[in-house]
Amino acid sequence: MRATVGDKLVQHGRIVGQHDKVGEIVEVMGADGNPPYRVRFQDGHEGVCSPGPDTEIRHKEDAGRPIGQ
């Protein structure tokens, strides 16, 4: 998993009814875009994340591109 500053980190809900948690990557702390990442979430708090299998990175250059292209 690789990311750059400005990409979105999406942590998918693990149980039915739990909403996804979306944040913006504000710092890449690993080498070559690898985790851990400092993330600012929509509610304003920041945290350091090492993403797991329930997480995806949405790259900022893909923001306007339809899914699957």
From TrEMBL:
Comp. bias (Basic and acidic residues): 55-69
InterPro entries assigned to the protein according to its UniProt record, in alphabetical order: DUF1918
Matches recorded under Gene3D superfamilies: Domain of unknown function DUF1918 (2.30.30.440)
Database matches in Pfam families: DUF1918
Region (Disordered): 46-69
Domain spans labelled DUF1918: 1-57
Protein name in UniProt: DUF1918 domain-containing protein
